């Protein structure tokens, strides 16, 4: 069975065929660093991570890019905010830096596969300016009062993602932009000057104290004067810079379909004449009670707090229990259930491994466990190929845990082959795809050690590619001297601490 996924662009479930049969180009619309990441973000991250892992499981190389929005009026609004001993940040980049540090730590604590690059807006201003200039030259954008707007009437496909005709598109941008625009639905690619006082006021919290009265944020030079990039243009510029004009998968929250993603398509396709992304995947909302969990509503649980309170494995279990494109609601009861399920799965794994490693391993007995394993593997695979249905995939693993327990409870002799295959299945699918860690040891140190080993293995790989085999062997020997076992497999080097 091949992978099929729901494409928002066509509104249909389609067979996945990347442009290059070996590598998938994937862009995830990342976070604006104006606050701590919360459970809703963690949910999207975990699902994107599972999608990344499943694509790799299917044999694709995954080139995953995830932007960090560090230029935004919400960040500017927090400049000078009193926090602890001093201000959160003295300027926009200072506030952003503080939240980026937390964001990267949060990602690491959730056991996420690394993206290839986490590009930041502040480092891509020249690419953004170039793209805006191209759009003006091609007649899709116009300058007005030092700002530049995209002319939606010039792009006949406008509305194709959110399924609306141009005439029905609602007005975009702030009230005071209206007089500068040809059409109320036109949107800003570049905004003259800094962030307005009104915008800062809108995002400030009356219960907090601020040392800076009128922060305006950073501005950059451009052919149209000093200013700041619009929000949407960043993702077009960064996706094209780090991946290609045309990519395979673009993922984001359902609330980004309009206007963000609609505008990304318009800008990118107008500029290049090529399809921007072939598959548009949207993660559904994460709710708290009957509200969306969000920073602006203030009803959120920060990732760092959730990891500490519940543990990474139960959190991943909780997220996997609802597929990415269904709404999930947070509740204590749902978390408790996830904790209980995780404990059940981990206990079964531990039992299977210790039985499989017990001394009578040569006794031969066949049992129905072998069939249960193969059933679980094919159900898991079918579920993941069916639009990344983690809920069903997880059910297959839990069922296998039940079958393994029944075998261990009932048999007077063990089916060693069945047990070993069960352990391998838990490892390949539970750890490899759903991202659990059966070692139980998910503290920061263990993760850091693993990441350092990966880093050295990457170095070794590039030495080999450069033909420096002697140096590559040295690196491997150094790792082995530290007790790291390295094995070269068809999927690249693997290691054991
Ligand atoms: Zn996007
Ligand atoms: Zn985006």
Question: How would you describe what is shown here?
Answer:
It is a single chain. The chain has 497 residues and is α/β, with parallel strands linked by helices. The chain folds into 3 domains: 4-288, HUPs (Rossmann fold, 3-Layer(aba) Sandwich); 311-431, Isoleucyl-tRNA Synthetase, Domain 1 (Orthogonal Bundle); 444-496. 44% of the residues lie in helices and 15% in strands. It is built from 15 helices and 17 strands. The protein has a 4-stranded parallel beta sheet, with helices on both faces. A 4-stranded antiparallel beta sheet has the order 7-8-9-10, covered by helices on one side. Strands 14-13-15 form a 3-stranded mixed beta sheet. Helix 4 (125-137) packs across helix 6, helix 11 (369-385) runs antiparallel to helix 12 and helix 12 runs antiparallel to helix 13 (416-431). The two termini are 35 Å apart. Bound molecules: zinc ion (2 copies). One zinc ion binds at residues 29, 235, 260.
């Amino acid at each position: 069975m091949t992978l099929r996924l729901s494409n928002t662009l066509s509104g249909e479930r389609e067979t996945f065929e990347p442009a290059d049969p070996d590598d998938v180009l994937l862009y995830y619309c990342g976070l604006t660093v104006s606050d701590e990441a919360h459970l809703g973000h963690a949910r999207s991250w975990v699902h994107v991570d599972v999608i990344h892992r499943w694509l790799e499981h299917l044999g694709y190389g995954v080139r995953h890019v995830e932007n960090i929005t560090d230029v935004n009026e919400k960040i500017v609004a927090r400049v000078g905010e009193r926090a602890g001993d001093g201000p959160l940040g003295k300027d926009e980049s200072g506030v952003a830096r503080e939240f980026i540090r937390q964001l990267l730590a949060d990602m690491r604590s959730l056991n996420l596969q690394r993206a290839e690059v986490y590009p930041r807006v502040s480092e891509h201003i020249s690419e953004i300016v170039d793209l805006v200039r191209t759009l003006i030259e091609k007649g899709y954008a116009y300058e007005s009062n030092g700002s530049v707007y995209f002319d939606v009437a010039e792009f006949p496909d406008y509305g194709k993602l959110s399924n609306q005709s141009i005439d029905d598109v609602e007005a975009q941008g702030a009230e005071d932009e209206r007089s500068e625009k040809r059409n109320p639905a036109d949107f800003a690619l570049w905004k003259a000057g800094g962030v307005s006082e009104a915008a800062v006021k809108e995002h400030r919290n009356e219960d907090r104290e601020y040392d800076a009265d009128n922060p305006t944020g950073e501005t950059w030079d451009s052919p149209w004067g000093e200013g700041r990039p619009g929000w949407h243009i960043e993702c077009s510029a960064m996706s094209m810079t780090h991946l290609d004009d045309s990519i395979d998968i673009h993922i984001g929250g359902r609330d980004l379909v309009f206007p963000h993603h609609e505008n990304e398509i318009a800008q990118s396709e107008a500029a290049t004449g090529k399809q921007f992304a072939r598959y548009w995947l949207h993660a559904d909302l994460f709710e708290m009670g009957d509200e969306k969990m969000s920073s602006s509503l203030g009803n959120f649980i920060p990732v760092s707090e959730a990891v500490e309170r519940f543990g990474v494995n139960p959190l991943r279990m909780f997220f996997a229990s609802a597929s990415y494109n269904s709404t999930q609601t947070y509740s204590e009861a749902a978390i408790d259930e996830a904790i209980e399920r995780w404990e059940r799965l981990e206990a079964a794994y531990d039992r299977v491994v210790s039985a499989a490693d017990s001394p009578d391993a040569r006794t031969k007995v066949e049992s129905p466990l072998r069939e249960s394993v193969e059933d679980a593997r094919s159900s898991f695979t079918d579920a993941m190929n069916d639009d990344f249905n983690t809920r069903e995939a997880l059910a297959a693993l839990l069922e296998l845990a039940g079958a393994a327990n029944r075998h261990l409870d009932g048999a007077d002799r063990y089916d060693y082959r069945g047990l070993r295959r069960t352990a391998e299945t838990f490892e390949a699918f539970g750890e490899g795809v759903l991202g659990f860690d059966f070692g139980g040891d998910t503290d920061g140190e263990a993760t850091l050690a693993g990441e350092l080993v990966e880093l050295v293995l990457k170095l070794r790989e590039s030495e080999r590619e450069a033909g420096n085999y002697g140096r590559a062997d040295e690196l491997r020997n150094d790792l082995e001297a530290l007790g790291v076992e390295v094995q070269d497999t068809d999927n690249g080097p693997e290691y054991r601490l």
